[in-house]
């Protein structure tokens, strides 16, 4: 079995193994977890021809540096606009490259984005819990969190020279400053001033931001009555408001039940873009109807499918090959040039 072994040289908090998520277990009190940015996670696997939902390393703003100790393996990085260094050479934030023994890969936050994904052409060896490697950050259950000194093992490691190169970053994969929401389900618990403030004022992402949720700074969203609703299931994208009037957005590791009223719910197509906001970034909410939310989600799903198909079919271009060969004046032997 071909293996690639890598060592974590440095690692920030909340860097973890994540597959596509552990769905269908919320009734047992088990959050789905999975990637904070589902599109970027899927793109990293698609570029390598890997199945959607396979395990990747989720990299937070704490960054990650890996050294390849043995073997060789092709990998893909996608998500945000992170600074990527491959053995000291600046690389594109979204791209496919091959790590060989002695190589060092560094991924650190850049101009935008809070989460990036590192997928490998092979099987990442890590723990499973309840059938999945998705890591629940609070409990640590799942594939687990990475730390400095840890070993990363890729089994069935494969090299795809033809897949190497930069990937496009579509506009809909970027962080969003205008977030579309469907009002409710407890908007009636708030006074009219609260709904107006939600839609007319801007909010800022605070440092109280992790895989469970994102606390916002902005106008207080005052409740009309006492803070008392029966606890009920909550979903990713819910905007819940505490007794202090502060809004929080629930994200991948959100609790399964909650007793705070939800003034609105972010439509699914905008959640990845919300997750890629950084602390101090500002955002506004825009209300849409339920029918428009469904239409927008379907349109986003079609665009995502087309993008993933494009990434999966991508083959290295002549320009890419010339750049990889690093030849003066871009001259190569005719026998090396692609025939198509």
Order of helices and strands: EEHEEEEEEEEEEEEHEEEEEEEHEHH
**Unreliable sequence segments:** 327-340
Largest sheet entry: 7 strands, antiparallel
Going by helix content, strand content and strand pairing, the class is alpha+beta
Major beta sheet, strand line-up: 7-6-9-4-1-12-11
Shape: elongated
Q: Could you report the average pLDDT, rounded to the nearest whole number?
A: 92
Could you give a quick summary of the protein structure above?
The chain is α+β, with helices and mostly antiparallel strands. Helices cover 17% and strands 30% of the residues. The strands form four sheets. A seven-stranded antiparallel sheet has the order 7-6-9-4-1-12-11, with no helix packed on it. A seven-stranded mixed beta barrel has the order 14-21-18-19-16-15-22. A six-stranded antiparallel sheet has the order 2-3-10-5-8-13.
């Amino acid at each position: 079995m071909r293996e690639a072994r890598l060592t974590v040289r440095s690692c920030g908090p909340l860097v973890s193994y994540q597959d596509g998520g552990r769905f269908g277990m919320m009734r047992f009190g088990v959050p789905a977890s999975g990637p904070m940015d589902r599109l970027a996670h899927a793109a990293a696997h698609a570029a390598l021809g890997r199945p959607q939902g396979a395990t990747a390393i989720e990299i937070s703003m704490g960054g990650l540096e890996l050294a390849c100790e043995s073997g060789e393996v092709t990998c893909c990085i996608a998500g945000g606009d992170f600074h990527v260094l491959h053995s000291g050479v600046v690389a594109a934030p979204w791209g496919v490259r091959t790590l060989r023994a002695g190589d060092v890969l560094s991924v650190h936050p850049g101009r935008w984005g809070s989460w990036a994904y590192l997928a490998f052409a092979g099987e990442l060896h890590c723990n499973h819990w309840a059938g999945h490697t998705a890591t629940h950050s609070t409990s640590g259950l799942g594939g687990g969190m990475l730390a400095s000194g840890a070993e990363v093992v890729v089994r069935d490691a494969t090299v795809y020279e033809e897949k190497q190169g930069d990937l496009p970053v579509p506009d809909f994969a970027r962080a969003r400053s205008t977030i579309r929401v469907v009002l409710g389900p407890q908007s009636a618990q708030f006074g009219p001033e609260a709904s107006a403030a939600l839609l007319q004022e801007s909010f800022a992402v605070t440092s109280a931001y992790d895989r469970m949720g994102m606390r916002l700074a902005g106008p207080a969203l005052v409740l009309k009555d006492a803070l008392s609703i029966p606890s009920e299931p909550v979903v990713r994208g819910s905007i819940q408001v505490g007794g202090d009037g502060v809004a929080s957005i629930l994200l991948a590791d959100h609790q399964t039940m909650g007793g705070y009223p939800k003034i609105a719910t972010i439509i699914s197509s905008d959640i990845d873009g919300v997750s890629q906001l950084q602390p101090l970034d500002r955002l506004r909410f825009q209300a849409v109807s339920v029918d428009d939310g469904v239409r927008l989600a379907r349109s986003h799903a079609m665009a995502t499918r087309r993008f993933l198909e494009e990434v999966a079919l991508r083959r290295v271009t002549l320009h890419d090959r010339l750049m990889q060969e690093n030849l003066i004046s871009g001259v190569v032997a005719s026998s090396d040039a692609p025939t198509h």
